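Summary for the funding panel

The consortium committed to producing paired sequence-structure records for every protein in the target list. Below we show the first two records in order, beginning with the earlier of the two.
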Amino acid sequence: MLRSVLVRRAAPRVVLARTYATPVEFKQPKEDPQLGDYPNLPPISAQRRPAKGWWNVQERRNFGEPLPEQAEVLSLWSPDVFNISRESALKQFGIAVLVFLGFTMAVRASVPERPAVPRNYPYDGLVKELGGLQENKAAVYEPEEE
């Protein structure tokens, strides 16, 4: 009896291990069958086009020109397209941080020291003469109990 219980418990684990071990491959279709005879244009951002010589200068398009499938993402209203490598961006950011830190250190070094010593009052900074610590605290009002 114990053997049959162990076999029943071990069998589902093996089956689950087999079902999750096979990877699922997703392949993008080369041509969308829903487009029909509409041209399959390459996804090129409108920011890469020259600024002048268009019927619609704001969108950089001519009248009747077909739009790519992802026209909203590729329009001029999408995030900017940068032509900079990651290494160059990190180098420029590092230079900017070093310039900022150098400027702050130069300002800190150029500030002169205080010409006088701060005042030092007797009796714990005139606590007794100013009324004490308890008298100077803000009043705390508690709600009345009904």
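The next record, for a separate protein in the list, is shown here:
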Amino acid sequence: MTANPTRLQALVEGELGLSIERGGIASALTAYARRKAVSLGTDSEESLAAHVKADDASFNELVEAVTVPHTWFFRDLEQLEGAAAFLAQRASRTAGPPRVWVPACASGDEAYSLAALVAERNARAEIVGTDVNLAALQRARQGAYGAWAVRWVPERMKHVLAPRAGSTYEIAASLKGSVSFVQHNLLHAPLPSTAADGLWDLIVCRNVLIYLTREHARRVIEHLRQALSPGGALILGASDIVFELPAGLTPVSIDNRLVFLRQEGAVPQPAAATPEPLALGFRIAAMPPQPAVGSRELVAIEPSPAYTSSVPPSQKLDEAPAAESDDSAAAREMLDGISRYLDGDVQGAARQLRAALFLEANLWPAAYYLALCYDAIGLGRDAKRLYGRVAELIASGAPLPIDTEHGFRFLEQDVLRIARARGARGRP
């Protein structure tokens, strides 16, 4: 069996939208392919892929192997509290309790957390968690969790999880009955709610898009747009910066957190064409292809501990893509670098993000994504230093050194929280 099961990779991308390069998916897929080939007694990748595609049980095994059930209770509590506040306000405008969809819910930690916060406000909501991973959904329905999943439960919320034998915890029966779980693939048509129009008042889809290919992330965002009720809200994670939004979704800041609202009075319609890019305050020229750098070069030009007002001496101008020294050039390098990161080209992304920081050292979005790149290639110490720098820049309150209408300023509090956590403890 080949070390790179290309047919299974195509199946994972085509059926699940996952980018093979992210989140350890490639290694997980290779390990699964080897195990499955042995169990089937075949050395043929073609036969293996055909079997997995045709056999539901085998496909579910594949899904379980490559999906990322990385979640815990009350993850980013402030954002969830904002969602609960939105639902309490929304309740006065809906017939019956507001409808909430939590796609890619994994083992249900997030859906139950939101249900607990809604109940704390003496409000009601109809919450549905979905995932393509059947095994994760079974765990969600059981409502039993280990100590790691509940490590950040606030003191005031500990009543929602009853301790059981063996350092496990179980969701309170009253809370378990307020959340339902359904299998659903985000690449398919949106899941309808129980409302007459089938739409949702709130969709919480956090830290999901980052694992998808750019093309599939666009498709998922369009599906979520279609599923929102007018005036409804879409909440994404801090890692899910969106460059292209369908018409009708407006990025707004609510309590310093980024939320996308469906325009009032708008009736969702399928997109007739590729969505237009989110408006920017500057023009971005097309970048010529740049050769990817290898891990040795990345190590050779790793960030300096004194990474504050300038890049290290080893990052000479001729090591960065040629660009004019102005705000537009820095912005272009930054956005192209972030785009490369989202497309899975971590090395190419790092090259262009370094170029952006060479031109404008205080460009915190570029520093943040460069830290993510260093995390991805194993340069943990350098990533930690960059996270610290990002936290310093945002906490200082200094405006972005480029003139842009992009939504980065709405993400400041989300990124500040992540940067502080990773700068202090490493990646959470």
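Regarding this second record: Residues 295-425 form a domain with the Serine Threonine Protein Phosphatase 5, Tetratricopeptide repeat fold (CATH 1.25.40.10). The first strand starts at residue 99 and ends at 102.
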